[in-house]
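Below is a filled-in request sheet from our internal design queue. Each sheet records the structural input a requester submitted and the sequence that came back. We keep these sheets so that new team members can see what a complete request looks like end to end.

REQUESTER: design group, bay 2
PRIORITY: normal
MODE: inverse folding
CHAIN LENGTH: 356
BACKBONE (tokenized):
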């Protein structure tokens, strides 16, 4: 028997069809009778960990927050975006529990934390915080000129916190992603921090209620305000894999469609594996995401999803997180998703927006 061709994957510690497929061993089932095997980049060790951000590993998929694959594409990586998903998660502005602020407007003239991760090849955490503060301030009649930003340096190893390589094991608590900001807030070095997803709940428990949520952008009226690093999430792939092994790519996307469908049909059973992916408790998933979030795990390409991706890219370009702009429509390849939907009998169930 000849050696199988390896397809590598990586995913972010957020609810994704990839995470469900991994934990339920669906990739193994889907590719059992093929010349391919699907493996986690964790098997390659720390030396290849940065491919989660820079997409340098050949024949690899990534599903997760949208800014790293955009950064990789802007840096010349030969990749394609195959699908997008969007589920609203908590995008919280947090202050100390005893802070007198009752509105984001009360943060005028005060200090806001922006995270610095010296060892990250791309500081998506800073982008997330800057975008969150920008949107919250704008909604409350303020701009960045009305506040002072303070760096909060986090020396932790981000790569150890993501893309766990074994099913059912809890990831590091989401609070760890915001440790520097949390300490800066509690020590009085800043007056507000931005936290996505379950990190706020985890921090409130860890600090014994010494911090509180001031505002949640999840409730903002417009799509532009709700766009952040993990919303939208992108499914990206090495373009060479699409060119050389299109059938394998379609089968991979089919597997994600099946995983998303399982989560839709088994909400309660899906909470535990999703919580393990996110490094939070199952009850946190209920609080962090709206009840229909499993319906939003399905990879898709719709006008609203493409609009969300465009909003993200424009902000990244404007704030110089990307070295240059790129053609978003040309980057998106709708054909594997279209064929996967057809094979799964879902061809008429969602609108596909082809790149123009």
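RETURNED SEQUENCE:
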């Amino acid at each position: 028997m000849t050696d199988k061709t390896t397809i590598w994957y990586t995913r972010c510690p957020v609810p994704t069809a990839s995470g469900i497929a991994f934990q339920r061993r669906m990739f193994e089932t889907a590719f059992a009778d093929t010349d391919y095997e699907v493996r986690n980049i964790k098997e390659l060790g720390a030396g290849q960990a940065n491919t989660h951000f820079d997409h340098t590993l050949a024949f690899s998929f990534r599903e997760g927050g949208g800014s790293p694959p955009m950064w990789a594409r802007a840096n010349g990586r030969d990749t394609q975006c195959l699908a997008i998903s969007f589920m609203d998660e908590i995008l919280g502005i947090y202050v100390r529990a005893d802070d007198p602020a009752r509105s984001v407007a009360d943060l005028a003239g005060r200090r806001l934390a922006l995270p610095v991760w010296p060892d990250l090849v791309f500081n998506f955490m800073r982008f997330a915080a800057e975008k969150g503060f920008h949107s919250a301030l704008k909604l409350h009649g303020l701009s960045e000129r009305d506040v002072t930003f303070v760096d909060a340096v986090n020396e932790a190893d981000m790569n150890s916190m993501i893309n766990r390589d074994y099913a059912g094991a809890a990831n590091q608590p989401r609070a760890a992603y915001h440790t520097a900001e949390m300490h800066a807030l509690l020590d009085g070095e800043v007056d507000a921090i931005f936290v996505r997803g379950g990190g706020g709940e985890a921090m409130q428990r860890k600090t014994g209620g010494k911090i509180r949520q001031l505002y949640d952008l999840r409730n903002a009226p417009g799509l532009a305000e709700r766009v952040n690093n993990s919303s939208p999430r992108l499914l990206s792939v090495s373009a060479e894999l699409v060119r050389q092994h299109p059938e394998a790519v379609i089968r991979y996307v089919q597997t994600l469609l099946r995983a998303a469908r399982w989560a839709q049909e088994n909400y309660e059973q899906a909470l535990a594996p999703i919580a393990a992916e996110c490094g939070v408790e199952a009850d946190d998933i209920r609080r962090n995401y709206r009840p229909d979030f499993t319906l939003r795990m399905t990879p898709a390409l719709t006008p609203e999803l493409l609009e969300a991706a465009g909003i993200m890219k424009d902000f990244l370009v404007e704030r110089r997180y990307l070295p240059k702009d790129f053609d978003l429509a040309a980057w998106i390849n709708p054909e594997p998703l279209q064929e996967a939907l057809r094979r799964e009998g879902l061809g008429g169930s969602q609108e596909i927006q082809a790149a123009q």
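SHEET NOTES:
- DSSP finds 15 helices and ten strands in the chain.
- The two ends are 43 Å apart (CA to CA).
FILED BY: M.R.
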